[in-house]
């Protein structure tokens, strides 16, 4: 269902839109910048992202490296990049040195923390013990600031009724990760992820978890955030793409059964509406305000 053939047009549209948005301070990319870790796609995405007029920050997604282990390949080894190549390619865009995780103060009193949740050879995710220990040290040293963790895989389930089908969208040690974040409230009050291709909001133990939609799958959207000292406002918006392209993405989604919720009705038009509704999200998934506590 992914609009790979149109991805270059979509990326150019994203960059142009960002550059035309008044007052935009920075851009967050929640992973999966490549199709399957191709070196030529790495060069191309850097070519376009470097045209942004504001800083941008990226985390690793499961598609940003070779999707297979060498011992699984019968024949030539897939020519994909490694996590290290991606990390070095995006130095200064969150990454600082060889680590796959990073922290960046992006405004007075505001810090982004980029987590690596990827596991080479699988599309599932985890937060390694080493990264979790680093995260706790980082949060302990950030008292008085607002810290927003950024991850590719979700830190809480957005489709719990479909767990067996969608569990790889969630990091496998999510309870342990959330426990660390909860320990450092109100330093942490919001966390942002991607991976699931839908818009979502879940409030849990004083932290709001948001997942951002995909730009290359229906409904081809992005999220804007406006942060003030006492609140964070978010809104999901459609990319200004040709209607025919958006319609093709919709048809692709409906045709690709793997992406359908397992509890969806089996007869039309209820089936189509259930599928589209999951990826559109509920009103609170698409826009809202999160009240922030004093740090």
Characteristics:
three-stranded mixed sheet, 295 residues, 11 strands, 9 helices, alpha/beta, Purple Acid Phosphatase, chain A, domain 2
CATH topology (fold) name:
Purple Acid Phosphatase, chain A, domain 2
Major pleated sheet:
3 strands, mixed
Give the quaternary arrangement of the chains: single chain
**Individual helix count:** 9
Which class do the helix and strand fractions yield?
A: alpha/beta
Name of the level-1 CATH class: Alpha Beta
Intertermini distance: 43 Å
Q: What string, H for helix and E for strand, traces the elements in order?
A: HEHEHEEHEHHEEEEEHHHE
Strand content: 15-25%
Helix percent reads 25-40%
Strand order of the largest sheet: 3-4-5
CATH architect. name: 4-Layer Sandwich
CATH superfamily: Metallo-dependent phosphatases
How would the global form be characterised? Answer: globular
- Low-confidence blocks of residues: none
What's the domain count?
1
Q: Name the average pLDDT.
A: 95
List how many beta strands DSSP finds: 11
Structure description:
- The chain has a single domain, classed as Metallo-dependent phosphatases (Purple Acid Phosphatase, chain A, domain 2, 4-Layer Sandwich), CATH 3.60.21.10.
- Helices cover 29% and strands 19% of the residues.
- The protein has helices spanning 7-19, 39-49, 83-89, 129-140, 163-166, 174-183, 243-255, 270-280, 283-286, and strands at 27-29, 56-58, 102-107, 110-114, 146-150, 190-193, 200-204, 207-211, 221-227, 231-238, 287-291.
- A three-stranded mixed beta sheet has the order 3-4-5, with helices on one face.
